[in-house]
Amino acid sequence: MARPGNGVEVAIIGGGIVGASAAYFLAERGARPLLLESGLVGGEASGVNAGGVRQQGRLLPEMPLALESLALWADLEKRLEARVEYERCGDMRVVETPADAARLREVVAREEAAGLRLEWVEGAALRSLVPAIAPQVLAGTFCPTGGQANPLVVAAAFARRARALGATVWERCPVRSVTRDGHGFALDTLRGPARADRVILSAGTWTPGLAQGLGARLPVSLSALQMVATLPLPRVLGTVLLGVSRRLSLKQTRSGALLIGGGKQGRGDLATREKRPSVENIRLSAVDAAAVVPAAARAEAARSWVGLEGFTPDEMPIVGRLPEVEAYVAAGFSGHGFAIGPVVGRLLGEWLVDGRPSLDLSAFRADRFKTA
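RESULT FIELD:
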């Protein structure tokens, strides 16, 4: 239940897909969380990514989260009473050299052992699945459960539904600091002071600054990931393509635009939140897309943008309780948190209400980075 005088059971700092989904799942379970976002919900990394909902190409400790997310995504529009444009269109990693093919087969063996269903496709089967694929593409791994959704709407839909269930959402409300206050936490916000019995730090690449005020250090660094969208083309892709040797993700939206990502860098500033695409990387994105799908060479770039994302040294997120400060954290998703964000939010809700999450999150503890 809510506390008087801006006091709440749980304050969630950061309105990305993780924070907004945590607010929803807490509210669904009867809690009345306060979600605080410095800008607009979903306005940072969660809303400016490629929208991929993929399982393949992940580090193996993330695989249970990725597989668990499938049922959640399939039911999301019904849960949220909103369109999120999720479609399970499949995705495919593509290889262009025998050496890459050999390395990918080794990866596939490990992923299949972890429970992921994959299909190795080449020759006529490859061309049938992706007729527009370039001649030099030798093979690929098709994951029929891969998909995509619209990142512009998902976090906001979670926040709206959370509010309808009793959560409080403060947008355009930066949290200047978080400190311990007796058995709880004191928050200095743009709207004034607030208190919470418990706190979740899910502010993306800004999370370490909040944690530092509590005396915790988190190894999350800034990465300025760049995306490119083209003007619409006739339909050339029905599935999402992922590069192996190339830093490339390529999908075609419902409007016909090609969306090109994959990890190329723009420029960004953590303090000012200013972002600027790299002109050279716009060109390289177009080169990579056309090399894999020659029809992409006909597309004209319409716009490019940058999202500020938090990366950890091992490129796996930090999710868990910080025992030294008794706060919860979910950050450092390293450019691939959109797909697993809702299930992480659900697990945080379970943890705070039931006392433990239904999946083992020990691989994502913050203290894995501590040296002996």
